[in-house]
Amino acid sequence: MRVYPWKEPPATLVFVGGGPRTVGLLERFAASADELLDGREVEIHVVDPYPVGGGRIWRREQSRLLWMNSMTSDVTIFTDESVDCEGPITPGPDLAAWVAGPGAVILEEAGLEPPGPMDFPPRLVQAEYLAWVWERVVRDLPATVITHRERAVELTPDQRVVLESGTEIAADAVVLALGYLDRLPTASESAWAAQAADAGLTYLPPGYTADVDLDGLWPKDPVIVRGFGQAFVDLMVLLTEGRGGWYDECDGLLTYHPSGDEPVLYVGSRRGVPYHAKLGYTVAGTKPVPTRYLTREALGEGVLDFDREVQPLIEKELAYAHYRQLFSAHPERVRCSWETFEKLLDTWSPTAASAALKVRFFAAVAGAVPDPADRFVRAEVDRPLAGRVFADRAQFERYLVELIEGDLLRRADPAYSADLAVFNALLSIYGVLSQAITDGQLSDEDRVRRVESDWHGFFSFVASGPPPRRLEELLALHRAGVVHFAGPGLEVALDNDQFVARSPGVAGEIHARAFVEARLPRPDVLATTDPLLCGLLESGALAADELFATDGTSLGGGQLQADSRSRAIRDDGSVHPALFLLGPSVSGSAGSSGFSRPYFNGPGFRQNDAVARDLLRLLAASTARKEERHAS
Question: pTM value?
Fold first, then answer.
């Protein structure tokens, strides 16, 4: 190699966003650096107003009462031998192994109880894990790493990242890993806020609960809450234990002792029931498997009609997973061979127009599976209150309590391991649907209304529910008079300077001076408040989906567009060779949470590895070109 009297500045890589996705990608960068970087000097800048490692969602500065939605044993940020990628595997401890090993002292110093493998740990435990992983990744990186605790506000055409302090970083490559984006309120939300303010009421629009100001929810005052998922669970915790209440347990029954500072919550939603509790068991050998009916081959090419061509295959996929596990693990509860039943499923058409065919199919299922609790009917799983009308709230609340108690018993019982098979099938189905969206096989309307709304809602309801303990707490709060159930199809209106909630399934009205939309806002990059993205979209340096229904009605913005290698697509359709996009606001991005279950071959790991290797090649080539220019 020739030596020159000048010293070329290091190749510079800038990450905007310092959460788990950036940490995981840098771990892959370090793994392949020896192979691809060719000894080049690299400087890495990570820009995020929140601490690197955990980022905003997994930061240390949040209530220790908030829990993760996964068991300790189900989380890792390191690759293992299951991951199918080009770069070398460099194993590290998953969360459970970390808690039992290097994390034990760290958690003790932080005043955190070490969770067991089957526990749902506080988010602060994950924050400590991610901070430790970050330190390990930085130690392994053959690069100088500089962090900037501020926001990036501009990316210039000549690839300079401008920070809000005025600092500019000239970059050879930039990765935008921004996570979940804040967005402008919708027209409806703005109208609600204005009307509530005029009437002296409290209205809390959709948002990340840990960041929402709850001071306007007064002690002992009724509060209407619309939303029964994770955002509600966080709200429930912060307004009860977070305000000084506490639980004790006697003979297996949980009792809540109010502090007196709690409001009274009336919670409802479209379904009117809380999300299913997370499964409280594991079964050896059960894991996501390739889909049988909903395959790339079955979907073919071209734009699909979701209701007619995709939904029936999903229906069959879920039923197949359920019954395959039932017949395999619990043969004493079925009345025919699996081979016979498999043929029945293979020939079943969920869209069959003939009522007689439907009756014959369900009669055959009933004959083969005598206990209704062992059967799978997606519509009944999805809408357990459909068609039911309750004469008064007391009757409805008694019914819902029994429903929740039954869910807790079932989700803790491996005798119903068919539920676990459905959970795993949901993960496999999600992968196929994501690919179909990336390939442009779904219309804007189907993508927004069928996948992002209906399908994702069903997925979350079944697979992303709270830890079982949270539903036990919900029942205890109900017994204490702190939580009441408002019903399905909940509609809220402003009437005579108060909020009024009504459910078509439950007689009566609920009146309150406060109303909370307990859900995350729908992603829409065209409505983002992030100054960096706003500037890039306005200049055409980034392209985003603008979605329309078949009648021309706007469905809002979708996601940022990237190619199959995660490189940004400009508004003119060209590809930016040195700007990479990752995360939930990017079309085709995988593993948006940044971590996966161990031994799961998580798609985010595979994508991280591919992007890291592209970055290494790009940086090595960039430095080599600079040397050639100076040599001449």
Answer: 0.92
